[in-house]
Specification:
Isopropylmalate Dehydrogenase, globular, alpha/beta, 11-stranded mixed β-sheet, 11 strands, homodimer, 12 helices
C-alpha cells in the first residue's frame, strides 16, 4: 500500500448539494482545514450564500476559497436533463475543476444519480472499465466489507461484475490497507451453479481473474464481515443497502412500541436503547464519509443528502486519501492485465 | 375472506426433513393434535424412527398415523437428482399423499430446493401460472409485509412478477384477512422509470392488472410494513431474506463486543439484551411457521431446516388454513381474469 506524497491536496466541494447546503458543507470544510494539514478546499456554489456561512468561522483564508457557480440542481430533477441544462451548477463546475487539475478530487452530497452521471460525463472512464461503480461499506460483526455495486448499474453483464471486483479489490487494498482482499460474488447459494444467469457467468470470469476470489456468498455474509469485497449488480446492491439503512428505523420503532407497554418496560427500553445506540453506531452512515464512484477518470465521492458537517469532513478526508493513493492508475494497470488474461472480457 | 368448512383437514408431514428430524416433527405433530381440533397428521418417513419418537407422548391415536417411506434426501443433494433417484423418500411420498387426496396439505422442513422441485413435479401448476413462488413474511415496524419471490425463481420475466403479485394478493387476503392488499414492486427508486429492465416492464403490467398496485418501493419499505405484498425476482428476494436473517446475528455479536469492554458495559449489555430479544421476536423466523409455495396444484409449506416443534406446529396450522381457504381455486380464477385483460401476458 502506497501512502503517496505529502503535497497539498485540493478538494472541490459541491457546496450546494446536500439537504442542509451550504451550511453543512461550509462547516465541514472549515472543520477539515482546522483539524488537518495538507488539504485545501474549493467551495463551489452560490458565492453570496457560501460567504455568508463562512463568515461564522475563523480559519486560514488561504486554505479555503469560493468558486462561484450560480445554478442549483434539485433532488427531483432528471440527472441527464439537469447536467445538460445547468452547466454552471455547483455539481458540474466542481467536477470541471477536477478535470482541469485545479482540484485533485471532488465531493458532493447532491442527487446521487446526477453526481454519477455528471462525473462520468465530465471526467470520462478509466481505460478498459465499461461501467463505473459505487461501493458502500456495510456494518459487520467484525472486519471490513464493501459491496460493489450499490446503484450505479442496474442491468449488468458478467464482465461488469469482474470490473467491480477489480476496482473493489484495489480500493480495499489502497484505502483500507487490506493486502490481497478476498472477493465474494453475491448469490443465492454457495455452490458455483447457484444463482441467476448473470452470477453463474460472472463466477466463471472471477475464477479465472487471478483475484483472491472465494466464490459465491449469500445475503447473510454481508453482515458477517468475513469477505472484504462483495460484488453484485447495482439493483440488488441498492435494495440491500436501503434495507440495511432501514434496520435502525425498525429497531427504534420496536423499542418505542415496547416502551409504551407500561412504566417498567419504559424504563427498561430507555436503558437498553442507550446501549443499543452505542452498539449500533456502525449502522450510522454518517460515519463512513460517502461512497466512492470508481472507474471514472478522477476522484469523485458521493455523500448522503442528509450529510452532517462530520460526514462532509469524512468525505473530504476520503477524497484526499483516494487522490494520494493514485488508485485510478493502479486500477487501469490491473484491469488491463486481467482483461488480457481472461478470454472474452476485452 | 372465506373460513371454509369445519371438516377435518389432514396434513402429510415430511417427518425426516429438518435438521432435528424426526424428533421436532413428531413433537410438533403431537402438540398440534393436543391443542387443536379438526386436524389429523400423517407422519411420513422411517417407521421405526418415527414410532420410537411417538412412544414418548400420549395422544389420540386416531389422529396421527405413520406412512412408511424409507429413503431420505440429504441437504447437500441436487434437488432434481434426489427426486428422481429417491421416489420413496418422505419428501416425495408426502407430496404424493397430497396429490392423491389422502392429505389436504403437505409440510416439510427439508432441503428447500428439493421441496420446491418435488412439489412442482408431483402436484403440477395452477393453470396460467408459469412459475410457482415462495413468499416470506418480514418483520416490520407495524403491519404485515410478505415478499414474493424469495428464491423459487432467480431469472424472471415481467409476467412472472405479475403472477407473484396475483398469488401474493390472494394469499394476503385469504390467509391474513387483508382486504384488497396493496402491492409494491421492489426497485431502486419510486418513479416508474427507475429500476432494471425487468422491473420497468413489470411496472407496466402491474399498472394494468387491476390489482391494488401502489408502484415502486425500495429496500427500506420492506421494513416499514406499509405495503402488504412486495414482488421481486427470487434472486434479490433471497438475498434480502438472508440479509434480514443475519441482522439478529450482528446485533448479538455487537452486544457481546460491547459487554467485553468492562463490567459496567457488561451489566448494561445484559439488561439491554433481554429487552432487545423481546423487542425483536419478530425477527425470529420460527414464529412464522414456514413459507408457502404458491402456484402448485396443492398446499405445500416449506420450513426452515432448523424448525423447532413450535415452528412445525405453526407450519401445520398454516397448511390447514391454506387448505381450508381453497386459495388455489381463487388464484386460478383471478389469474385467468387478469391475463385475459392485460395484453401480452397469456
Amino acid at each position: 500500500m502506497s501512502q503517496g506524497t505529502k503535497d497539498t491536496i485540493t478538494i472541490s466541494l459541491d457546496a450546494m448539494g446536500g439537504d442542509n447546503a451550504p451550511a453543512s458543507e461550509v462547516a465541514g470544510a472549515v472543520e477539515t482545514v482546522l483539524s488537518h494539514d495538507g488539504i485545501n478546499v474549493i467551495l463551489v456554489g452560490d458565492e453570496g450564500k457560501i460567504s455568508g456561512e463562512l463568515k461564522k468561522f475563523s480559519f486560514d483564508n488561504s486554505r479555503i476559497r469560493i468558486h462561484h457557480a450560480p445554478d442549483v440542481i434539485e433532488m427531483h430533477e432528471s440527472p441527464a436533463d439537469a447536467i445538460r441544462k445547468k452547466p454552471n451548477s455547483s455539481l458540474v463546475v466542481g467536477l470541471k475543476l477536477c478535470r482541469s487539475g485545479e482540484s485533485n478530487g471532488y465531493i458532493s452530497a447532491g442527487n446521487t444519480g446526477a453526481v454519477m452521471a455528471a462525473s462520468l460525463f465530465t471526467l470520462g472512464r478509466i481505460a478498459n472499465i465499461s461501467r463505473p461503480t459505487i461501493g458502500s461499506r456495510f456494518p459487520t460483526e467484525k472486519g471490513i466489507t464493501i459491496v460493489f455495486d450499490v446503484g450505479a448499474n442496474v442491468d449488468c453483464k458478467p464482465v461488469n461484475l469482474l470490473e467491480f471486483a477489480v476496482m473493489g479489490s484495489v480500493y480495499a487494498d489502497h484505502i483500507y490497507g487490506i493486502d490481497d482482499p478476498t472477493i465474494g460474488l453475491l448469490s443465492v447459494g454457495e455452490e458455483k451453479s447457484k444463482g441467476d444467469t448473470l452470477t453463474v457467468e460472472a463466477h466463471e470470469l472471477l475464477e479465472k481473474s487471478g483475484l483472491n476470489f472465494v466464490g459465491n456468498v449469500e445475503g447473510r455474509d454481508i453482515l458477517k464481515g468475513s469477505i472484504h469485497v462483495i460484488v453484485c449488480d447495482g439493483f440488488v446492491g441498492n435494495v440491500v443497502l436501503k434495507f440495511a439503512e432501514g434496520v435502525l428505523g425498525i429497531l427504534k420503532s420496536k423499542f418505542k412500541d415496547y416502551a409504551e407497554q407500561g412504566i417498567t418496560r419504559k424504563i427498561k427500553a430507555g436503558m437498553a436503547y442507550g446501549t443499543l445506540k452505542t452498539v449500533l453506531k456502525d449502522f450510522d452512515y454518517q460515519e463512513y464519509g460517502g461512497v466512492p464512484l470508481l472507474g471514472v477518470n478522477g476522484v469523485s465521492i458521493i455523500g448522503h443528502g442528509r450529510s452532517s458537517p462530520k460526514a462532509i469532513v469524512n468525505m473530504i478526508l476520503r477524497a484526499e486519501q483516494t487522490a494520494r493513493a493514485k488508485i485510478n492508475d493502479i486500477i487501469a494497470a490491473k484491469i488491463k492485465n486481467i482483461k488480457e488474461f481472461v478470454p472474452g472480457t476485452l
